[in-house]
Design brief:
Largest sheet: 7 strands, mixed
Structural class: alpha/beta
Family: Belongs to the small GTPase superfamily. RasD family.
Organism: Oedothorax gibbosus
Keywords: Cell membrane, GTP-binding, Lipoprotein, Membrane, Methylation, Nucleotide-binding, Prenylation
Subcellular location: Cell membrane
InterPro entries: P-loop_NTPase, Small_GTP-bd, Small_GTPase, Small_GTPase_RasD
Number of strands: 7
Low-confidence stretches: 6-21, 189-227
Order of helices and strands: EEHEEHEHEHEHH
Number of helices: 6
């Protein structure tokens, strides 16, 4: 079962579940050791995990109050292992948008992104928003996947959004999520003013309704305004 990290705002009262109008799930996929979890942690917690711990599946859920309505944003961090095909299939079926990650110093990880792209085409009805991310752009001296070539394949052949990023140096991390939400025509304006109101309030981590107890983590919201 996936572990769940569920921060919520104290401005959302006990009856807020009846007011929530939107529930959106972003799925982060890619080969092992490309930095999927590091991207998620940098975005949510503004921290880079120095210890590598293989992910099975982690679900992060944030509740936002926007005016008189609310939204729930899930970020599903998936395993890079082939040992969990059923979990991968379920992630594809339940995802609304997808962030496919490779490492610029690992050519095989870029090929894996191509296979994941085909998997999404085979199992997702309609056109799901996809952003392809070349992580570890800080390792320019170890680059084996050329940016121009990757950009051409992703933008022209696959007709998806592409950018390079570095979870370690916090380069383009927020932009990844801005791009995917813009592609999805996300209806909520998470502007800097509302960002400040939200982060001025404490968060209360909750547990998921299963046998696993969620780890308590405080999330600092990033500005993810969609233009």
């Amino acid at each position: 079962m996936p572990s769940s990290h569920t921060p919520s705002l104290n401005s959302v009262n006990e009856n807020s579940c009846y007011d929530i109008k939107g529930h959106y799930r972003l799925v982060v996929m890619g080969a092992a050791r490309v930095g999927k979890s590091a991207i998620v942690h940098q975005f949510l917690f503004e921290m880079f995990p120095t210890e590598y711990i293989p992910t099975i599946e982690d679900l992060y859920r944030g509740e936002y109050d926007v005016g008189n309505t609310g939204l729930v944003l899930d970020i599903l961090d998936t395993s890079g292992s082939f040992e969990f095909p059923a979990m991968r299939k379920l992630a594809v079926e339940t995802g609304d948008a997808f962030i496919l990650v490779y490492a610029i110093d690992d050519e095989e990880s870029f090929e894996e992104v191509g296979r994941l792209k085909e998997l999404l085409l085979d199992h997702k009805a309609g056109h799901a928003p996809i952003v392809v991310v070349g992580n570890k752009c800080d390792l320019e001296n170890k680059r084996v996947v050329q940016k121009a070539l990757a950009d051409t394949i992703v933008a022209i052949d696959w007709e998806n959004r592409f950018l390079e990023a570095s979870a370690k140096e916090n380069i383009n991390i927020v932009r990844i999520f801005q791009e995917i939400l813009a592609m999805a025509n996300f209806p909520y304006d998470l502007n800097p003013a509302s960002q400040k109101r939200r982060t001025s309030l404490p968060f209360y981590p909750l547990t998921k309704c299963n046998t696993n107890v969620a780890k308590s983590k405080k999330i600092k919201r990033n500005n993810c305004a969609v233009s």
